[in-house]
Design brief:
Rossmann fold; 328 residues; elongated; alpha/beta; 44% helix; DNA-binding; six-stranded mixed sheet
DNA sequence: CTTCGCATTGTAAGCGCTTACAATTTATTT
DNA sequence: AAATAAATTGTAAGCGCTTACAATGCGAAG
């Protein structure tokens, strides 16, 4: 089949040990020898067999990004973006990346052990059990975009509180006093954070939020639109609605249009995530931009640190940015 | 470190060969022995080391999904969806899936050889060279959503022509005689297919399409919106615009709104891909639904066939479906 | 010219599994 | 019960690499 180190050894006239060293630790072989080895390798189309190398080294340099979600679409825009960033980073550091959804590996930690995965980046709503299971098997773990109270693992989080603060600040500065929030049932952690932040920040700004101005709905546009209609039909209609993410906000805009309310004149709408849809809507949706790329980079960076036996911060918060557009 | 087959062998009192067989070919060991082995494995938390197994077997069962794109966002909704489907399928058949963008592996086929990847699903605009390079190294290749004239490789394609036909048919049945198309510069293959199909189908339906009713623009909303404005400002304004994908169509809707044209009364709009944004727009966007899941399944199925030494169809076309919504 | 130290290279023993082949046990047949 | 076939298990040789250790070569110092 493929040429092996023996073929290169024979053709170049040096031992296999030298060939091996030429590839994995070039400084250990004399310049002239190295050249001979590489020439022979070139001729034979030899590339080191990563499997055999892993076997001998007792290290695989293999890591995984596990997305834990129950929803239909696992690779949504948000995680796809983090994913891409992790892909890029893992590549730069010569790690082999395996991407998977937790539901796919029926026995995730077993599969990971079997496949000799040395570190895992957990995205989404992984359970505490999953984390500790990995840790107990000596697998490095970093968690992205989720927080498990009492679980000691490095977290990479987006600044949810700060994002909500920017939203409320912005709306308040535009003179809104009656702001509603429409939350959707997606990631419990994220929704919880945004919801609590909303309550706390509005209070801080001296805005009172009545109970009927905070609603919960399912995480699809239509549910959001229906919930938003109720919200906007109240006698004391809110002048601004904050959707817990862009899909929800899009639902709010639909509702507004159905009720013949103008956005932003009659009701301002804000979303969260700054996904691609924001600029496709008319008016364009004001939203909080999450730095997914940075989150991926940090996840990877921390995992690399753990694998190298170094320490890394237990919580890293990535700043967000408010993108003001036509909807406010 | 981790327990090995020797530990299990010792604890269960059988040879390593038997332990190995119990795990990889259970029918070859007596029921009672098998139980002993599994019990010992359980106690030791033993799981077969996939690396060592690959080494001994000379097979890795490793495959890759390579997305070849130049755009900023590699994992867009479309590919993410195919990806998810491939993930699911590969898992069912115990393949190890590596997902990557071609740009990530600086020397893709070398890396693949080094990592002992046995088969590749190529998505997007891969080059003919890439395909033949893989094939010359005995790596099975299947191509999804792209076609390279003269390159012999199994193709899994969506029915672009059929989709466009559904669109034109639909618009014609609604009485539209003056239909425009706005194409964007994304995948050359896809745009080409949709564009040619549009010209050919409109001709078939006896609709004449003037040159200024077919425009090209960049693949983002704003470019599309600007191009669409020109389209809609003509004295002989088209009554329907077909966007080559949903992003373009969203741009058309934005343009319509800017020009105070009502959708669908003044101008009907149709997209392609049936992405999530369709239902977020108001009115909702009529679009052609592509069965990404099926495309992923077929890609995987064909790759599996190739790896098993079986044959598979050289071109498979996946049917599409028109989702009629408020925009027409 | 010998001796020592360092840089370079070679020898060979694994890494954890599979599997051909041999040896043994068990079931079946005469 | 002996003979034969079939099922089960064991022995041991790799798979392609790395790396500890040994061996060699070379220049500098004595």
């Amino acid at each position: 089949m493929n040429p092996t180190i023996y073929d290169v050894s024979r053709l170049s006239g040096v031992s296999t040990a030298t060939v091996s060293r030429a590839f994995s630790d070039p400084d250990k072989v004399r310049e002239s020898t190295r050249r001979k080895v590489f020439e022979a390798a070139e001729v034979l189309h030899y590339y080191p067999n990563a499997i055999a190398r892993a076997m001998a080294r007792q290290r695989t340099d293999k890591i995984a990004f596990l997305i834990c979600k129950k929803d239909a679409t696992i690779l949504d825009e948000f995680y796809a973006s983090i994913c891409e960033s992790i892909m890029k980073e893992s590549n730069r550091s010569d790690y082999q990346l395996v991407i998977s959804t937790a539901s796919d590996w029926n026995q995730t930690p077993n599969t990971a052990q079997s496949r000799q995965i040395e570190g895992v980046i957990l995205g989404g709503s992984a359970s505490a059990d999953l984390v500790t299971e990995f840790q107990s098997r000596n697998t490095a773990v970093v968690m992205v975009n989720n927080r498990l109270p009492g679980v000691d693992v490095p977290y990479v989080l987006s600044d949810e509180y700060g994002g909500v603060r920017l939203v409320v600040e912005h709306l308040a500065s535009r003179g809104h006093k009656n702001i509603a929030m429409l939350a959707g049932r997606f990631s419990p952690y994220i929704v919880g954070e945004r919801y609590n932040a909303f309550l706390s920040v509005t209070k801080e700004f001296g805005l009172k939020v009545s109970a009927q101005n905070v609603k919960m709905c399912d995480a699809d546009v239509e549910s959001a639109a229906q919930a938003a209609e109720e919200l906007l039909r109240q006698k004391n209609r809110p002048t601004a609605v904050f959707g817990a993410n862009d899909v929800i906000a899009a639902g709010v805009m639909k509702a507004a249009r159905r009720l013949k309310l103008r956005v932003p004149e009659d009701v301002a709408v804000v979303g969260f995530d700054d996904s691609a849809v924001c600029t496709m809507l008319e008016p364009e949706l004001t939203s909080v931009h999450i730095n997914c790329q940075r989150m991926g980079e940090l996840g990877m960076e921390h995992l690399r640190a753990l694998l190298a036996g170094e320490t890394c911060p237990s919580v890293t918060v990535v700043p967000v940015e408010l993108k003001v557009r036509g909807s406010t």
